[in-house]
Write a structure and sequence with these properties.
Distance between the termini: 22 Å
Shape: globular
Strand order of the largest sheet: 2-4-3
CATH topology: Alpha-Beta Plaits
Strand content: 25-35%
Number of helices: 2
């Protein structure tokens, strides 16, 4: 299934909670200079804080959303259908 992780980098503080919580290691947080245009980033004190999302690994579990104390992550995509028993 295809899931998309959307991060509001204007409000992201780079706290790393989402990265630590992700059970499939689909998120990585980097601080580099200069800023990259290939990844989600914002500039803090002249360095780019980059949140790298590996969409191919994302399981769509939403743990990153729950782990974010600033409510800046949204998950979109197909939701698994419940199996009728």
């Amino acid at each position: 299934m295809a899931f998309a992780v959307h991060v509001n980098m204007e409000r992201c503080t780079g706290c790393n909670n989402c990265v630590v919580a992700c059970p499939v290691n689909a998120l990585e947080l980097h601080t580099v200079n200069p800023a990259s245009t290939d990844k989600i980033y914002k500039v803090i004190n002249g360095d780019a804080v980059i949140l790298d999302v590996k969409h191919e690994l994302c399981a769509g579990c939403g743990i990153c959303v729950d782990a974010c104390p600033y409510d800046v992550i949204q998950l979109s995509g197909q939701i698994p259908q419940a199996v009728a028993v």
